[in-house]
Amino acid sequence: MADRASRRSLSRPLLLCLALAALVVLAWAGWQIGRQGGQAEVTARPALWHVTGHGREAYLFGTVHALQRGTTWLSPEIARATARSDRLILEVTGLEKERRSRAVFERLGRATGLAPATARLAPADAETLRALIRRRPGVLHGLDGYESWAAALLVSAAASAELGLSSEDGGETVLTRTFETAGKPVRGLETIEEQLGIFDALPEADQRLLLVQAVREADAAASLHADLQQAWAQGDLDRLERQFLAPLDSAPRLRRALIDARNARWGAALDGDLRRHQGIAFVAVGAGHLLGSASLQNELARRGWRVARLQ
Fold first, then answer.
1. What pLDDT shows up at residue 4?
2. Which residue has the higher pLDDT, 12 or 204?
3. Closest Cα to residue 61, out of 81, 83, 43?
4. Which tops the pLDDT comparison, 47 or 93?
5. Span 207-223, pLDDT tens digits
6. Pick from 94, 311, 278: which is nearest to 186 by CA?
7. Which string of DSSP letters, residue by residue, matches the chain?
8. What confidence tens digit (pLDDT) does each residue in 261-281 have?
9. How many domains does the chain have?
10. What is the pLDDT of residue 25?
11. What is the dihedral of CA 258, 115, 131, 247, to 10 degrees?
């Protein structure tokens, strides 16, 4: 199985992207991420869309969940959109409740009778994992007791913890603070259980593919994340699509479970929410969900909404 997973390993930075979708893992590792790294002076203008139709309107924004400290992305256009909006809809809420988030991750991610994590990998990848465990023992202690999907997310979180990122500057944290300070409601499209349950339901072959990719990306995490953040900051959707969706071309089952099926569910949920409620919603989800033919924008367009890019 290890050799088969190795041969199927993806060629692009998949796990770094998927770690952005698995917010709870970064939240659990937040004490490492949020307290490391120097200050960056980066002014970003990420993509923002305006959704109209059926007598309603909303804004749609793609987030990166952990950024270099000092990254400024709340542009005048985004600030105006948040001020006009009366509610915030996120991918998932409650990540600041770290004890509960960790409990959910532990309940879904742990199992008995598992093969050691290194035994699930080809020899070269196993040695890379051993080196990473020696470097980040606090995050990766007891890795053998986790299912392959959970081990993959922990490895990716461990690599991210070395980058000097700050979840305090990420989209969810800043937007939640902005809306809660203004007394506006915040809700999620998914629960923590639902989000991690998607990973937990993957076949073992796909879980091992994630683990292989997490291990292989670990040493290159700095350059991979820098490229990803730069494309996001410039609102370069073509570049983001090459970085985020291209890795999934060789793994259609993963793409369907982690991106396309979720976008379809979210599109249906948002269609109902926007039709039922007056006022303006600000919708913020991971940037990867706003790319490609199965993007959330296209899901809304198929339901009769007009989606226009503002920034």
1. 45
2. 204
3. 81
4. 47
5. 999 999 889 888 888 88
6. 94
7. -HHHHHHT--SS-HHHHHHHH-HHHHHHTHHHHTT-S----EE----EEEEEETTEEEEEEEE-SSEETTEE---HHHHHHHHH-SEEEEEE--TT-HHHHHHHHHHHHB-SSPPPGGGGS-HHHHHHHHHHHHH-HHHHTTGGGB-HHHHHHHHHHHHHHTTTEEGGGSHHHHHHHHHHHTT--EEEEE-HHHHHHHHHTS-HHHHHHHHHHHHHHGGGHHHHHHHHHHHHHTT-HHHHHHHHTGGGGG-HHHHIIIIIHHHHHHHHHHHHHHHH--SEEEEEEEGGGGSSTT-HHHHHHTTT-EEEE--
8. 999 999 999 999 999 999 999
9. 1
10. 59
11. -20
Residue type, 245: L
Range in 175-184, 190-199, 274-283, 291-300 the model is least confident about: 190-199
Range of the domain at 286: 2-309
Structure token digits, residue 97: 């409740």
